[in-house]
Amino acid sequence: MEFRAAFAEERRWLTPALVINCLAIFLSLTRSLWLACLLVLGLHLAWRRSKWLWTLPLLPAAVLMVPGLKPMTV
Prior knowledge:
The chain is mostly helical and about 70 residues long. It has helices at about 1-5, 10-25, 30-45, 60-65.
């Protein structure tokens, strides 16, 4: 995200790369990847001192409330 803000001229190739990367993460089914993404998001929000950091614990709860999704069992 920081690279995109700092180097605006590189957006031409960066946007498709970010879309592909986000799609790959979204389609992945590994729990550790989802937890790592949540951790990185939390670190990014803490670094930016964002007030959205306080809503971060609600994100997993909101995802579980989506109809049709069941919690994974081991």
